[in-house]
Amino acid sequence: MTSTAAKPSLDPKDFRNALSMFATGVTIVTTRSGDGEPVGITANSFNSVSLDPPLVLWSLAKNAYSLPVFQHAKEWNVHILSNEQEALSNKFAKKGEDKFAQIALDQGVTASPLLPGCSARFQCRTMFEYEGGDHIIFVGEVLAYDRQPTPPLLYLSGNYALATKKAAAIATEAASDAGAAPSLFSEDLLGYLLGRAHYQFMSAVRPMMHTYGLSEKDFFALSLLSVRDQVAPEEIAQHTAYTGTGVDEASLHSLLERQLIAKGQQGYTLTEQGRSAMAHIIAAAKAQEEDLGEKMGALEMAALRNLLKHTISQTDPGLSKLWKS
Amino acid sequence: MTSTAAKPSLDPKDFRNALSMFATGVTIVTTRSGDGEPVGITANSFNSVSLDPPLVLWSLAKNAYSLPVFQHAKEWNVHILSNEQEALSNKFAKKGEDKFAQIALDQGVTASPLLPGCSARFQCRTMFEYEGGDHIIFVGEVLAYDRQPTPPLLYLSGNYALATKKAAAIATEAASDAGAAPSLFSEDLLGYLLGRAHYQFMSAVRPMMHTYGLSEKDFFALSLLSVRDQVAPEEIAQHTAYTGTGVDEASLHSLLERQLIAKGQQGYTLTEQGRSAMAHIIAAAKAQEEDLGEKMGALEMAALRNLLKHTISQTDPGLSKLWKS
After folding, report:
1. For the domain that residue B156 is a member of, what is the CATH number?
2. Do B228 and B288 share a domain, yes or no?
3. pLDDT digit string (tens) for B137-190?
4. Residue B80: its chain A contacts at CB < 8 A?
């Protein structure tokens, strides 16, 4: 690791890349202009400073359009964005347009706009305004604050990110008796982890599948039709092939006979009966998900979903999208 | 979401909890005392301030033992810790002991101690020292810096964390035609994500299962015997019940006939032939895992394993452990 002398040849982009190794949350800081217009910008330069008195800081570029507004207003709100507010972050990171359009603001202790749905909010009054090179550092006294248990949005190396709790050390030794043949795989084998997590999760859902007399094949075909209408048999086969269960004409015929699906000109569609069965099965899956969410916490659940989506897109055999993006 | 007035009744612990919703990296800041002794502390109050001139800031409690040292020294190094430096973070967060013992320091542009193995480092000289309530804010000019592509350690809500790249915005609307019945579930349904990730992953492994003529049932029984020797039929049934495939006497009998397993006094064990078949199947699973790892990156894979383990332990029907912990 060689040190790069910052002067005289500091490359701003390279320096920024080094700084971006420090992960941060993402905030929107809001205030009002002299004529009452709401103003807000995305910033990740926030940090806590002091507990007594309660102080926080953030910094704003001297050439920022909103600098004089913040300097004049003396009051501002810092919103720590939740993992669901990526779009809001992008909106407030740009200039122009009415950023506050269609946002129902909450009532705060000052006139500064208070955005809903954040992980935490700090309503502040400027206590100090410090020189910071090409930025001004605002140190504010916290007049009021609140928080919600929604996982925050992160920013790291120029990308949005989610956080996951760091796990304890990983076990790699099999619990077999001494002298036994060595294990062929360890607890870290991803295929094992995916399978066991999936099947154990589904064991709370399977009884409901059995109530409606559904096999795995039946279930995969009906799942697809729960999301899409009028699907041709080839398309059903193609979309369920990755399950390895082999949904074919015979399985569709059986579903037709049981009046769980109906055949139209453009393909198969769930009947009311099929829709009702699937609604009950999905309700069981949602109940299991809720139960798991209570044990794991919202942050871990969001990260798990996120990583499963990565896994799905990286192993996708080239299926058309089931949902609009 | 109700606002909590910060004054007069601010609860320091509650306020700190709200502040901790802002994720940060973890740094160690080092300097040398007047008599040349190395000094260092863990801090997460770091942030970038200015590109031109290059400035960063961090804050230190006024009652910190090391405050006078930093105020006198005027030079200090900020180290952004990697995800492998959790122990170092803990060490420098405490008082006493010789924190620098057994650390081979790198050579920097100042006399301040430069720790190896970090995600990024900034060698600084104090430019401003600002009042910040119960803390002093140090703003330093960056004299030199460097970085490594090792994932950084995070701190969020009082816990160490890892970051995972956020997936693209979540689609919740079905891609059906307008006028079609609404989807019964969205792309966020965890059961769907687990299933699709699992089955798509396994689609690279299934051909190898078919090469050896193995059904799902066969595969689950042989998987268990790949990790444990001499397993009684009831125990095999119990340990594979969560898969819903119903491994029974008949399936074990079929495996016996194909000489993939052998029956001993204390239960079933893989034959050499069974072991070889499973070794090939597991090799296919490992190849798929490696392929996925190259696409997703080590950090994401570690986080995914981590979260699947959480999921497994939270949905465990009470099975005995397969591996020692």
Report:
1. 2.30.110.10
2. yes
3. 999 999 999 999 888 999 998 988 888 777 654 443 444 444 556 788 888 899
4. 21-22
Quick one: how far is CA B117 from the chain centroid?
Answer: 18
Rounded distance between C-alpha atoms, residue A57 and residue A65, angstroms: 19
Which of helix, strand or coil describes residue A90? helix
Give yes or no: residues A28 and A129 share one domain. Answer: yes
- Domain for residue A16, yes or no? no
For B11-54, how does the pLDDT look when each residue is reduced to its tens digit (9 = 90+)?
Answer: 899 999 999 999 999 999 999 999 999 999 999 999 999 999 99
Tell me the β-bridge partners of B28: B42, B79
Which of B161, B179, B204 is at the close of a domain? Answer: B161
Peptide bond into A152 cis (omega under 30): no
CB contacts, 8 Å: B109 with chain A: 3, 5
CB contact under 8 Å between B292 and A148, yes or no, is no
Beta carbons of A285 and A292 less than 8 angstroms apart: no
What's the ipTM?
0.71
Residue of B nearest to A318 (CA): B200
Nearest residue in chain A measured CA to CA from B176: A228
A171 assigned to some structural domain: no
Domain that holds residue B243: 190-315
| CA nearest to B114 within chain A | A3
Instruction: Specify the CATH number for the domain of residue A238.
Output: 1.10.10.10
Counting every residue written for chain A, the total comes to 325
pLDDT tens digits for range B93-108: 998 778 999 999 999 9
Global pTM value? 0.71
B261-280 residues touching A, CB cutoff 8 A: 269-270, 275, 278-279
